[in-house]
TrEMBL record:
Residues 13-66 form the Large ribosomal subunit protein uL5 N-terminal domain. It comes from Candidatus Acidianus copahuensis. One of its GO terms (cellular component) is ribonucleoprotein complex. SUPFAM superfamilies: RL5-like. This is Large ribosomal subunit protein uL5.
Amino acid sequence: MEGENEIVEKNQNPMRKVKLAKVTVNIGLGESGERLQKAYTLLEELTGVKPVYTIAKKSIKEFGVRKGQIIGVKATLRREQAEEFLRRVLPAVNNRIKSTSFDNYGNVSFGIAEHVVIPGTRYDPDVGVFGLDVAITLERPGYRVERRRRKTARVPRRHKISKEDAVNFIRETFGVTVI
């Protein structure tokens, strides 16, 4: 029985294998100031990567946000850092992700209401409590043709990742229950 599975895996096309492209962690505050600096240091501590500031694309008078104002911080993780971060963060949501969190293009997003529920982090009264959003992007080998500078091409629909492919990858790789 074990030998049959190995044969099937050998005969599968390696270009159809789903892989983790990146994990983007975002803390959106809607305001700048001292609280934004605290969110910056917290995100740097959680991810181990230097975050970047996010800027408002348009003015929203009701929220007091002006176009061009710094309103949040985000950090992008790739390769082993991304996997390690996900393995640390997923227990904060009890290794459960809603099926509505998956889109039809291989992306998964979920939120964490308070960063202190992440295992290994502790409450610091100087920093406070922040919520954060985690966005997971999945892709297959060959997606680079859309992003490269020279001779860009479109990835055909049959090669893109479906919702079912993304659900299966997250289940198998990280042991997550999809509800």
